[in-house]
């Protein structure tokens, strides 16, 4: 069985990192690039249900996604210390730079010191700006500019682009060895998650009739059997139950079954063995009976009971442009122009060229913007239109934001 990994990073790194990952048998990748590292959380959130693990091309997009609390799958990032930093030092030395006078961002002082000690190099004249929460590319640029004659080593493409031509600057790119180490760490984590997802989940369902119950059991990827005393036994695993309950928060099947039965009570138990799961399911059903005629409870180990809401709350639609801009990784000004375009054409689709002209950007940039909007449910692809030349067809999009 294979695993699909989402590789997140800047345009010029994603393909190389993904290609190294795909050398591993059973690994396939979803390549997700960004223009600026601040867009990483939005990309992760948009593709959260499509992948089984995340691999970031560096620590910065990983930290931003972690701080945004959007990581729900096993995750790893490529470490730029060690082999990656050593190869950069060799390259700079061959180019005639003084590798004992460097200005380095993102890496920790301890990692830099360890790498230099391994290479037998002094650290007295190094300037290091470790990554910390709230660190921006602007502050990293200011830090390097204060370094005077120091050669710059950066992990951030935005910093490299800003300093190139003004200071001697080298951007760290992940070594093949570092990518393989990160991938190995991710696969081990994903294997542990898979074992957890395979935990047995037993549900004891009590209701007046059986209409709709088989369909609900099938949707949970489970099997149904008679238990005793009019109670039905639903057997599944942790993974499908977790997904169907929105992370163990709601059980929409409860309200659907209540349309046919006056009494619908469900008790789910999650355990490492069938006996443990059944014992917990009994406890959960007993509590559901105390709650009322329509109730569901999930019982976990360590005496933890979770009351499951009958209906999942509807997703809130973003009407606040600054909030929406952060979610899709675009500026408020861009969204305002797109809203103007939608007001002009209504439900009529626009080509990528037309949208690029309205936004005064290149078609490639417009395609990336529209892709983000599509993932967020704010634009829909309606087809292709020949451009009338040998170039690629123009994609048609209907704006729904």
Automatic annotation (TrEMBL):
The family database entries (InterPro entries) matched by this protein are listed as: WH-like_DNA-bd_sf (IPR036388), WH_DNA-bd_sf (IPR036390)
Its recorded name reads Uncharacterized protein
* Source organism of the structure: Streptosporangium amethystogenes subsp. fukuiense
